[in-house]
Design goal:
By secondary structure, the chain is an alpha+beta fold. It is about 25% helix and about 30% strand. The protein has a domain of about 190 residues: Thrombin, subunit H, CATH 2.40.10.
């Protein structure tokens, strides 16, 4: 009895694959008898045992790593694309730079240095008024006598009335926001009552807390201070040199606050008062206009930092008007007089 042919185990066919055609029994028997092996042809057997073709998704899964690498490379190329496509700009010429600057300045003009310095120091500048005696009010009638000798009242002569009679007007600068004010000694000397007016218009009585006669300086304490009082920023004069721009701020003849701009004319100058009572040394000489009333005011740099306290003007004619030479006490001396630490 002939034994049935044995087939080797092969991978399962994919679903939907048609089975190989059955070999007729007679042919199989004949083939077995003659050769002892299956009579099916080799190509047909190979086709039957070949795995089914891979689908598109299966192929993607096999090449997943390469696909991710390619995607990352593509993203890197796209990220650097603007830099690659940007045109190389040539350096601008002088004419182009000049035109760009002119256009920028025309759109937004530069702020004048003097204006910036004035706005920086203004909140710290105060008007100082010292009253030595109780002066009659302006416009009040003055006493006189009639022909019979009886006292009468007469109207004052407008040309004789002096609104500053019995008062001294100067300037001060706030150096501590608790109401500590620096001014000149000659502004408050002999005053029975001192009044200061702050930048916001509020007024307060003040008292002298410290004197430095050798530098003509006085330190005042305001009794009432505004909530938003600002102290000035002080700067050492070590880097100051002739030619540096400065601004003098104060109340010349009671008018102000007023500002005048000039330059440092010299350093370590000496000044003798017209009466010869006081000699001041180590002064800053400047040519910014200063007049009576500027005394005690700040001399500031263009960044608004105080480098000196205006204290005197020189006039050979002994008239109280400015002829081009003013003097200021260096802020180092002034700070020492106020008890502040040196720079």
């Amino acid at each position: 009895m002939a034994r049935p042919s044995l087939y080797s185990r092969s991978p399962a066919r994919a679903a939907g694959t048609a089975p190989a055609a059955a070999v007729p029994a007679a042919d199989a028997a004949a083939g077995t008898a003659s050769t002892g092996t299956a009579t099916a042809s080799d190509p047909d057997r190979a086709a039957a045992q070949r795995p089914p073709p891979l689908t598109f998704v299966q192929r993607l899964h096999r090449r997943e790593r390469w696909l991710w690498a390619g995607a990352m490379l593509l993203l890197a190329l796209l990220a650097g694309w603007p830099a690659w496509t940007a045109k190389i700009q040539r350096p601008l010429g002088i004419a182009q730079i000049d035109a760009a600057l002119r256009e920028s300045i025309a759109k937004e003009p530069l702020v004048a240095p003097g204006l910036a310095a004035y706005e920086a120091i203004l909140p710290s500048v105060v008007r100082v008024v010292g009253e030595s005696t109780a002066a009659p009010a302006k416009g009040a009638a003055a006493p006189g006598r009639s022909k019979s000798g009886k006292p009468v009242e007469r109207a004052p002569d407008p040309e004789e009335a002096d609104p500053m009679d019995g008062r001294s007007v100067g300037t001060g600068v706030v150096i501590v926001d608790k109401g500590l004010i620096l001014t000149n000694l000659h502004v408050v000397e002999g005053a029975a009552r001192l009044t200061v007016t702050f930048a916001d218009g509020s007024q307060s009585e003040a008292r002298v807390v410290s004197l430095q006669p050798q530098n003509d300086l006085a330190v005042l304490q305001a009794l009432t201070i505004p909530d938003d009082l600002q102290a000035a920023t002080m700067r050492s004069t070590s880097g100051l040199a002739p030619g540096d721009a400065v601004l003098a701020v104060g109340f010349p003849f009671g008018i102000g606050p007023s500002a005048s701009q000039g330059v440092v004319s010299g350093l370590k100058r000496e000044f003798r008062s017209p009466e010869g009572r006081r000699i001041l040394t180590n002064l800053i000489q400047f040519d910014a206009a200063a007049n009576p009333g500027n005394s005690g005011g700040p001399l500031v740099t263009m960044d608004g930092h105080v480098v000196g306290i205006v204290t005197a003007i020189m006039n050979p004619n002994e008239q109280r008007t400015f002829i081009g030479i003013g003097f200021a006490v260096p802020i180092e001396n002034a700070a020492a007089g106020a008890g502040l630490p040196p720079f």
